[in-house]
Amino acid sequence: PVTDGSRELHSLCAQLEFLLQFDLKEKRSFFGQRKDYWDFLCQGLARCRQEHEGIQFVTSLDKLKTPVGRGRAFLRYCLVHRQLAESLQLCLLDSKSLCEWYYARSPFLSPQHRAEILGSLYELDCVTFHLAL
Questions:
Q1: What is the pLDDT of residues 71-110, one digit of tens each?
Q2: What whole-number distance in Å separates Cα of residue 98 and Cα of residue 33?
Q3: What is the secondary structure of the chain as a DSSP string?
Q4: Which pLDDT tens digit goes with each residue over 20-66?
Q5: How far is CA 68 from the centre of its chain?
Q6: Domain that holds residue 32
Q7: How many domains are contained in the chain?
Q8: What is the CATH number of the domain that holds 90?
């Protein structure tokens, strides 16, 4: 199993975060706080499902104060529960929403790149992750 001490885990999470932040449009909340990929994921999953367990779990953690911290915790939760590919795929279904959140250079806006990314993420479902949540 992959644990918190694994260098590969840190590299994987950094690459995932890079993909999710690459060419992300700058958006602000009503109170001026900058939105991040966490907000994109919340919106995308809310549109597709009633409530995602990962979103509920992360929002229940009082120690997480920033969207980036919540996003990182969500990625780890999804890796442990083998839900990363499915959760991201649900967020990427709505092309109008993708265009609202990402500029044209985002790999998520290319059907070919999106399919390659999701295919790789689905392969992670057979990897066991034992991470502290």
A1: 999 999 999 999 999 999 999 999 999 999 999 999 999 9
A2: 20
A3: -EETT-HHHHHHHHHHHHHHHTTBPP-B-TTSPBP-HHHHHHHHHHHHSS--HHHHHHHT-TT--SHHHHHHHHHHHHHHTT-HHHHHHHHTS-HHHHHHHB-TT-GGGSHHHHHHHHHHHHHGGGS-EE---
A4: 999 999 988 777 778 899 999 999 999 876 689 999 999 999 999 89
A5: 10
A6: 2-130
A7: 1
A8: 1.20.58.900
